[in-house]
Amino acid sequence: MSKYSQTGLTMIELLVTISIVAILATMAAPSLREMVESNRLTALNNQLVSTLNYVRAEAIKRSFPVTMCVRNSTGSGCATSGGFENGWIVFVDCGNYGAVDATGCNYGPGNTNAAEEILLDTTPDFNGITITGTSSTAPTLRYKPNGGIAGISGSLTLATGATEYEQTLNLGSTPRYKIKIQSATGRIASCKVGTSGC
């Protein structure tokens, strides 16, 4: 007999180990999928909140109303239907009409009848995530140069307190996040549905 004994797993030990790993992987898969979806939803919520803060900041900085609306198929203007899951544009809304105009912006000497500038054109991946509200019209949101809300419609809806506008981000049919905009100051806040104060 050799003084070097052979070591390793028997076929039965190997099959038992593989079976245990397969069972654990099957149990972990739904949790992993939920974690991935939750992280994606959080990222999209943060992107939307960041855009709303950008709209408000640009209105203050430029001293012109700035509007955020659902983008049309080309990104050249606002859509008349659909929601922010289709993407959005942000533009300087000099005419205060909620539409991108080819003229009408007075940016100063030598540029007194300029086109309204599109500042941001975004098409995020909202696959499987919906933004819900009470209206079938395409949502728009307009900030005034003082940082307050100038105009709002569609999925950004009046909350029960009558002092905040509210939009819900859903995963499937389950509400996960609410974005609230104070009507007086235009300040934006986001909270996770089910947490205290949300």
TrEMBL record:
<keyword id="KW-0812">Transmembrane</keyword>
<dbReference type="Pfam" id="PF12019">
    <property type="entry name" value="GspH"/>
</dbReference>
<keyword id="KW-0472">Membrane</keyword>
<keyword id="KW-1003">Cell membrane</keyword>
<dbReference type="InterPro" id="IPR045584">
    <property type="entry name" value="Pilin-like"/>
</dbReference>
<protein>
    <recommendedName>
        <fullName>Type II secretion system protein H</fullName>
    </recommendedName>
</protein>
<comment type="similarity">
    <text>Belongs to the GSP H family.</text>
</comment>
<keyword id="KW-0997">Cell inner membrane</keyword>
<dbReference type="InterPro" id="IPR012902">
    <property type="entry name" value="N_methyl_site"/>
</dbReference>
<keyword id="KW-0488">Methylation</keyword>
<keyword id="KW-1133">Transmembrane helix</keyword>
<dbReference type="InterPro" id="IPR022346">
    <property type="entry name" value="T2SS_GspH"/>
</dbReference>
<feature type="domain" description="General secretion pathway GspH">
    <location>
        <begin position="46"/>
        <end position="169"/>
    </location>
</feature>
<dbReference type="Pfam" id="PF07963">
    <property type="entry name" value="N_methyl"/>
</dbReference>
